[in-house]
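Predict structure. Chain length: 185.
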Amino acid sequence: MRVRRRTVWFMTLLSLVAVISVYYLVDPAKQFNGLTIFSDDTLQQTAITGVTDQEASKKDVTTEVSSPSHLFEEMRMQVSDERSQLRQQLTQKIASEEYTAEEKNKAFNEIDGLIKQESAEAMLEMLVKSLGYSDAFVKAEGEKVSVTVMAEELSKTQANEIIYLVKTEWEGANDVQVKFSANNY
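Prediction complete.
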């Protein structure tokens, strides 16, 4: 029964990743436009407080607004690019006629392992976020799992809770590192 449950989780996560990938390909994140802050309501409020529209726009246009999750998205994209290149190399190895059937089978198993690893990382990210963190990034390399969460600070209790979660969900995780990234960068 455990194998079926894992298969269902795997297929669910794989479907979720596919849907999210298509969504981001079709509708990429839009750039932030700082001038949209000044809607009619905001301009009326600044006029009431005595600050002119030009003064308000001078103050706020120079302020750069960046979402802290952009860092996490960049990390995800970097890992995704590396794995895509590896997957492409393995796919070329499978398609090539100069390798034996055993080598092609090994390459196919590596691709399968990459897919399982990506699904497990995505599931762990969702589980860590369910603990109350606004964003999380999980990267696994063999038995080493690195978890970065978005938080102002991280207590030992919170870190231990994340380590316990990772070790219970990821069978081969022997070395789990937990880091935090503050919202103010």
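Summary: DSSP finds six helices and three strands in the chain.
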